[in-house]
Amino acid sequence: MHEKVAFVTGSSKGIGRAIALELARRGADVAVNCRTSVEQAQAVCAEVERLGRRSVLVTGDTRVPEDVERMIATVSSILGDVDILVNNAAYALLKPFLDFTVEEWKSQIEYKALAYFLTSRAVLPAMIRRRSGAIINILSTVGMRGGAGEMGYAVTNGGAMALTRALAAEIGQTGVRVNGVMLTWAENAFDPEDPEHVAWLNRFAMGRVTKLDEVARVVAFLASDEASGITGAIVPVDAGFMCQ
Length: 244
Fold this sequence. Notes:
alpha/beta
C-alpha cells in the first residue's frame, strides 16, 4: 500500500479513525474527513504524519454533491488521485417508525444510500483510467437482518449493500474492486457499565462486541493487492452476531 492515497470519510474518531491510522501504518497517504469535529480530525492527521505518511483534512458533508466534488478535488491536488475510498460517515437515528418525520427519514437514507453513491462517483473516473482502485463500504448488519427502532438506518444500509454488489458487478472488468465490511456493534459505542448494553452480549457468538482494530485490519486487507481476487463481497466483522 506504499504511497497509495486513501480517502476515509467520517474519520475524525471511532471506526473511521482506526481505519485511517491502519492504512497509514501500511504505507498509505490518508485524507481525513469530518463535518464538524475539526479538532479531532486534525489530531488524526497529525497521527498519520507521525507514522511518516502525508495527510490532509477535508471538511464537508458526504451527502452534498458540491461538498464531495470539492473534497475529492482537494485531495487530488494535494495528495494525488484517490486509490482507496473508504465510505464510513454515517449516523443512526433510533426511533419508532411512525415517529419519523419525512425529513428525518430522508436524512437517514442519504447518509449511506446517497453519500456512498456520491463519493464513489467522484473517485471512479480516475480509478477506471488507471485500471486500479478499491472502494470499501462500511455497513451495518441491520441492513440485512432488519431492526426494530432503527428502520431508517436499516434501509440506508440495505441500499448501500445493494450498491456495493451492483457496482462491483458493473465495473468488475475495469480493475476497480468494490467490497463491504459489515458490523453490528463496535467497542467505541459500547458501554460495559450499562446493563442494557451488557444484556446484548449473549447475542454475540464471541461474547463481546467488535474491536476497532479488527474492522480496520479487514478494511486494509480488502484495500490491498492481497485481496486482488475479491469484489462484490460483504464481509461480516461482527463478533459472530449474525451466526447466532
